[in-house]
């Protein structure tokens, strides 16, 4: 069982899926504000299923799910889906973008769907593209993007709505070592600066090692490994424009 956070932003207790427990037979996960954790499991261990249960794409046969102390499992489906839509950002493994839109338009899409006007949504989208160091691709067509750009654009899209929880399936796959390191640093800084709980799902121990704590998934259950060394000081927002955009101070470190 994962080490429970004192005040978990996301708390999953005893998740079973499907009813016979053949994929998950008791998954627990508690992630606190400002934490960036990794769920580490072999191929086929159930990471994508766990991610789907945590963001409401699948329903558990048993278990409960809490967000900031609020029991989501007792809410009617429509209310629960509203919470997921407003408070959760998801990076799916396939990272698909809409090929008929530009990269910036794709990243802005969650804001447009929430009713924000185009210029403001694109402005916010560009801030996130800068954050992930792919602003040069803002006006490119999203069709046929190289995988490393696609993955970071999909991360920007998952974060543009300022979610309380980010669930990211293999966010560092296909990235070179320096880009993986900088992307991991950005994800940790987002946890620290925005209070977003970051949960990364990976089969790579090297990827898990970038984050604060590793939760091992095997045999349908979760278990916590020794906490990884705390990451070095993480610079937060790169510019005063970015800080102003989010109403945050500059230069704080974890
Ligand atoms: N909706 C579903 N209903 C029932 N079983 C499922 C469902 N989705 C996936 N599975 C099964 O759950 C098991 C775990 O799959 P999952 O994709 O979660 O593994 P994973 O750990 O994400 O693997 P990988 O690292 O290869 O992505 C597989 O046997 C898969 O067939």
TrEMBL record:
The keyword Cell wall biogenesis/degradation does not apply. One of its GO terms (cellular component) is plasma membrane. Keywords: ATP-binding, Nucleotide-binding. GO terms for molecular function: ATP binding; ATP hydrolysis activity; transmembrane transporter activity. It comes from the Bacteria. PROSITE patterns: ABC_TRANSPORTER_2. The keyword Nucleotide-binding applies. Residues 3-244 form the ABC transporter domain. Signal peptide: none annotated. Belongs to the ABC transporter superfamily. This is ATP-binding cassette domain-containing protein. It comes from Actinospica acidithermotolerans.
